[in-house]
Design a protein that fits this description.
globular, homodimer, 6-stranded antiparallel β-sheet, about 300 residues, Phosphorylase Kinase, domain 1
Chain lengths: ~300, ~300
């Protein structure tokens, strides 16, 4: 692969016609930006993220780049380095047509910690999920091999304990340092952590064991280098498990949202209804419809 | 020392002659890399960091770049975007000649997830803690007002359920955005989460309630804006609780190390020996003495 400029090599540049409406959010630390705009008269969200710097390209990067001196002081000097484009790509995600929900999802908002009792779940959260949820068509496409079939890292096709393991959209798969895979279960009626009981232990143990084995085989990373967890609330209500590299500070791995799968298994082993009966805590962004429901109920 | 190919436009490309010895560390999330090597026979450290994406360059970026399609599924598609080099620079810092200290400073230690059963705690961790006996003098100084007395935000002097709340060293107190306080208990015989039983519920509930009240009063932040948690393993073995702002990605708030105080209280309410009997998971850095003990015991 190279960064040739001949038209033959390019995809059509769909972003040429992108009209920015406004920046939804950005992280200078992570070198990401979330943009809302229009693509051929359709609402679109475009996400740009600079790619990690790869060790195996350093020699080529140093020899093939242009350096502009900015500052020199004693033993310290700083430069702006201009690299050949193919060595310095920007990961670009386009959601088009994007719904109001997608726009909200990427809009930076402050968060509030919500306390959800089992009763709150039944009277506030569950009715909200049932009414509001995102289409799960893209999950069904994956499970039915209608999309992303070539991205599958591992599959256990069993309808009860089986799952498909594949890279998360956020991971460009160029290096294992920010490894991020998702295990999506074949069962279609488990919404989230809240639905889990001891009946699901065979499923959860199967995902834990076979997911780790598949990652060891494909990426040579042992279990001690992995963080395996569920989100609550999840971003979509079809049960899935996150596998990220332990050293990678993945988004959504903070204690207020993530639940280690090993802990989930252990909790269900000692109390079959642990997640049905517990008060659970999770962050919700200011613009989340579910937060409004908790506020309306006088819970915040 | 001019490694440039068209010497006219460029600064001298000093990095052309850089010989990489090894990568000291890298953050895929922050798009940084720290490299140790040689520059004209002198020790050098080179730090590369991709630059944040600037809103004011977006139009030019979209029109002037090449897009390579990676994946398309339903309304989602991902691309690799190859941008003009001047719109996508890499901040480069060179330390040369670099000393041993510079090299150490940038060296990253990888972490390993350790699985600690209750038996492992008694046979491996506890003897290690007892042997190491890190001095807790600085904690005792705080509790006895021999040091940092002027920094105290709140104190409940009760010997059983009391504690002192004060800002963590990492927080400069200039803004609440990265609020970080520590509650240090007056009881001196509770080493960590592992020692907690239902007997400690009055202490834990007292810290939770009065800590939140004190923060509301002093900083005007309600409980829903706070992340209140313990570390396991902690960095010192005198029980303490962390209070950080929910939106602040504090170091040590990831799921593999942090335990929400609300969860700890709930777990002890339903099982008085929860933390005495559980398998606990935590990360240890490669150079941690405790990790060697787990390795020697064949546990990793």
């Amino acid at each position: 692969e190279n960064g040739g400029e001949e038209a033959g090599e390019k995809s059509e540049n769909v972003l040429c016609g992108f009209k920015t409406s406004h920046v939804l959010g950005a992280s200078d630390r992570e070198k990401t930006i979330f943009i809302h705009g229009k693509l051929a008269d359709q609402e679109a969200v475009v996400i740009l993220e600079k790619t990690p710097i790869r060790e195996d390209t350093l020699t080529e990067l140093f020899s093939g780049s242009t350096l502009k001196l900015e500052m020199r002081n004693d033993i310290y000097s700083t430069y702006r380095l201009q690299a050949p484009p193919f060595l310095n790509e920007i990961k670009t995600t386009v959601v088009c047509p994007a719904t109001e929900k997608h726009v909200k999802k990427y809009k930076h908002q402050e968060s509030f910690l919500v306390e959800e009792t089992d009763e709150d779940y039944r009277s506030i959260t569950l009715p909200y999920i049932e009414m509001q949820r995102f289409s799960l068509q893209w999950i069904h496409n994956i499970l039915e091999k209608k999309a992303e079939a070539e991205r599958i890292v591992y599959e256990d096709p069993d309808p009860d304990v089986g799952f498909i393991l594949l890279p998360d959209f956020k991971w460009d798969q160029k290096q294992v340092d920010d490894l991020y895979l998702i295990a999506i279960v074949h069962q279609r009626d488990i919404r989230s952590l809240r639905d889990l009981t001891s009946e699901h232990l065979p499923l959860l143990k199967n995902i834990f064991q076979k997911g780790q084995e598949a990652i060891l085989e494909r990426y040579n990373l042992p279990a001690s280098k992995l963080r395996v967890y569920l989100h609550y609330q999840p971003s979509y209500y079809h049960l899935h498990v996150h596998f990220t590299k332990l050293d990678y500070e993945a988004p959504g791995c903070r204690v207020e949202r993530a639940h280690l799968l090993a802990d989930v298994i252990q909790n269900l082993q000692s109390d079959p209804k642990y997640y049905k009966s517990r008060t659970l805590y999770f962050p919700l962004r200011a613009d989340d419809g579910l937060l409004s429901k908790f506020k309306e109920a006088g819970k915040l």
